[in-house]
């Protein structure tokens, strides 16, 4: 027979504690090393950032500061950069803190002896899970080493045959020492038999007395059993009758309340039927274009820069409407207003002059055309270190223009086109445009909304030709100016 090593489970617990402590010390030492290296790196980055942004910080050029700071936030360890002027007013906040917290390094920016501002750079904390993931070969190797030690101990510390035989002899000697001689055992057994017989006699007498008392009590109560049973049955019948009556009354009241609630829900559903009806005709559509301004840079921009930028966007959109409606595919579609960009964007209303006009397709093409134009202008402005914003657009009919505005604010993403049209409008664009639904919608309008996912080759070529025509007009206007 093979015996286990003594206290093998206790040794396993000791090894487990050793492994946990070793892993903890590894994490602490690695975290300290990474923190020191990241602190040195952060100080160097802050100093370099101040050198690059000194002129822009002195002039309080928010656009240039934002462009410079964005280059540093692309670093994996940097979560936020906050640039302030000499009055401690925030000029540029870049990054995603406070979603990710970490160590912040602050430094004052000077130009000679004059203080022109300050820069605060936040470095991301290194999580313990990332450290363990980085050191996984060491952790797994240490775990395998501890497991090997436990197996070696279980094999080497098993008792040998000589040790087992010696232990058996010791147990036998101890067993013999604990028992008395034979004559003493016989005397003790006699005493035990006498005590047992006396105890049995007393127990029999006690049982007889208890049985007699029980018989007397049973005879005394025998005559009242039938009366008690009848009384109990009558009580139960009265309680059941009362409970049935109460249940009927409560059920009738609950039915009336349910009918009232059903009428209220039906009236609320009827109020939304007009907006969500899929069978409406599409005589006009509204194209909404808004800026994707995550940090509210437009309202912080000086009027001398904001107004020309809005005028450029207005000119692009109006020229896009003019050039697009010249296409033979959109014959019978006309614009009801002239677009004008404000801080919250611009909108264009297109109407169908006859029943054959494809006004829904015209709205989708106009929205996509402006997004293509805005991307070119945005990339060119960023290349020249000028201010520009990406855009997003939405197309809907008049009944759903307000929900589309909320959808653009809540779920709209950069350079994305949202479509909220009834079945007649979706049928117009189905042969030219591909769409997909929103994943995990939370409202009725999000469930009905579709996202532009692409178009066929002929439509893309038409949009490209119109885009080139608009850009050529824009270039000619700049040459004349």
What would your notes on this structure say?
By secondary structure, the protein is α+β, with helices and mostly antiparallel strands. It has four domains: 179 residues, Beta-Lactamase; 33 residues; 30 residues; 201 residues, Nucleotide cyclase, GGDEF domain (Alpha-Beta Plaits), CATH 3.30.70.1230. Helices cover 62% and strands 16% of the residues. It is built from 15 helices and eleven strands. The strands form two sheets. A seven-stranded mixed β-sheet has the order 6-7-5-8-9-11-10, sandwiched between helices. Strands 2-1-4-3 form a four-stranded antiparallel β-sheet, covered by helices on one side. Helix 12 links the parallel strand 8 and strand 9. Helix 10 packs antiparallel against helix 11 and helix 10 crosses helix 15. The longest helix has 52 residues.
CATH class of the largest domain: Alpha Beta
Count of spatially separate domains: 4
CA-CA gap between termini: 104 Å
Task: Using the CA coordinates, give the radius of gyration.
Answer: 44 Å
The best one-word shape is elongated
User: CATH H-level name of the largest domain... which superfamily?
Assistant: Nucleotide cyclase, GGDEF domain
Low-pLDDT parts are 180-187, 217-226, 240-273
How do the strands of the widest beta sheet line up side by side?
6-7-5-8-9-11-10
Major sheet description: 7 strands, mixed
Give the helix level as a range of percent.
Answer: 55-70%
């Amino acid at each position: 027979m093979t015996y286990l090593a003594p206290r093998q489970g206790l040794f396993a617990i000791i090894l487990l504690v050793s492994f946990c402590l070793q892993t903890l010390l590894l994490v602490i030492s690695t975290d300290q090393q990474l923190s020191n290296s990241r602190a040195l790196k952060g100080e160097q980055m802050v100093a370099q950032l101040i050198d690059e942004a000194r002129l822009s910080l002195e002039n309080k050029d928010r656009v240039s500061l934002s462009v410079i700071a964005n280059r540093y936030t692309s670093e994996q360890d940097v979560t936020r950069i906050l640039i302030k002027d000499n009055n401690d007013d925030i000029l540029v906040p870049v990054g995603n803190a406070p979603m990710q917290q970490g160590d912040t390094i602050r430094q004052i920016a000077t130009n000679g002896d004059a203080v022109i501002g300050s820069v605060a750079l936040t470095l991301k904390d290194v999580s313990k899970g990332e450290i363990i993931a980085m050191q996984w070969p060491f952790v797994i190797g240490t775990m395998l080493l501890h497991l090997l030690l436990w197996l070696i101990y279980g094999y080497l510390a098993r008792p040998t045959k000589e040790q087992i035989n010696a232990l058996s002899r010791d147990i036998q000697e101890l067993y013999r020492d604990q028992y008395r001689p034979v004559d003493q055992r016989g005397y003790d057994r006699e005493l035990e038999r006498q005590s047992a017989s006396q105890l049995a006699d007393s127990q029999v007498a006690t049982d007889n007395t208890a049985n007699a008392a029980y018989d007397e009590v049973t005879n005394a109560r025998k005559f009242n059993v039938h009366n008690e049973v009848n009384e109990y049955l009558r009580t139960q019948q009265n309680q059941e009758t009362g409970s049935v009556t109460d249940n009927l009354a409560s059920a009738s009241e609950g039915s009336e309340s349910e009918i009232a609630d059903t009428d209220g829900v039906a009236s609320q559903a009827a109020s939304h039927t007009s907006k969500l009806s899929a069978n409406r005709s599409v005589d006009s559509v509204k194209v909404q274009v808004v800026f994707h301004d995550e940090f509210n840079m437009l309202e912080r921009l000086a009027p001398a820069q904001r107004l020309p930028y809005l005028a450029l966007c207005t000119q692009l959109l109006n020229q896009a409407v003019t050039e697009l409606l010249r296409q033979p595919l959109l014959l019978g579609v006309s614009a009801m207003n002239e677009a004008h960009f404000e801080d919250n964007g611009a909108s264009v209303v297109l109407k169908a002059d006859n029943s054959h006009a494809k006004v829904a397709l015209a709205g989708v093409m106009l929205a996509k055309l402006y997004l293509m134009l805005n991307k070119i202008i945005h990339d060119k402005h960023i290349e020249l270190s000028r201010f520009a914003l990406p855009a997003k657009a939405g197309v809907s009919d008049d009944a759903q223009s307000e929900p589309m505005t909320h959808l653009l604010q809540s779920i709209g993403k950069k350079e994305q086109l949202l479509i909220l049209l009834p079945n007649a409008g979706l049928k117009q664009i189905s042969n030219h445009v591909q769409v997909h639904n929103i994943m995990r919608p939370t409202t009725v309008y999000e469930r009905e909304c579709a996202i532009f996912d692409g178009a066929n080759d002929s439509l893309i070529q038409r949009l490209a030709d119109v885009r080139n025509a608009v850009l050529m007009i824009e270039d000619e206007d700049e040459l004349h100016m």
